[in-house]
Amino acid sequence: MAKVIEVNKTTSRTQLDEALKKLPQKKLPINLNDFFGKIKFGIDGLEYQLKMRDEWR
Q1: What CA dihedral angle connects 44, 47, 49 and 55, to 10 degrees?
Q2: Does residue 43 form part of some domain?
Q3: Nearest by Cα to 18 from 5, 27, 8, 28
């Protein structure tokens, strides 16, 4: 959810800096290489794709 910081002419730089410090920090990206190859599918991906495309004909 987005956070709104209202800034007007009377807002000082220190007030703005304090409001920005209160914002949540960005999360570190997840290394997806740890999960690579963990899910075993019972069918080859290309074979499945060709089968799905063939159903339209």
Answers
A1: -140
A2: yes
A3: 5
Check residue 11 and give its pLDDT. Answer: 92
Q: Record the pTM.
A: 0.41
Most confident region among 9-18, 30-39, 45-54 by mean pLDDT? 9-18
Tell me if 20 sits within 8 A of 7, measured CB to CB: no
CA distances from 45 to 25, 28, 29, 34, 35 (A): 38, 31, 27, 21, 18
3-state secondary structure of 3: coil
Q: Residue 52 is part of which domain span?
A: 29-57
57: pLDDT confidence band, cut at 50, 70 and 90?
Answer: low
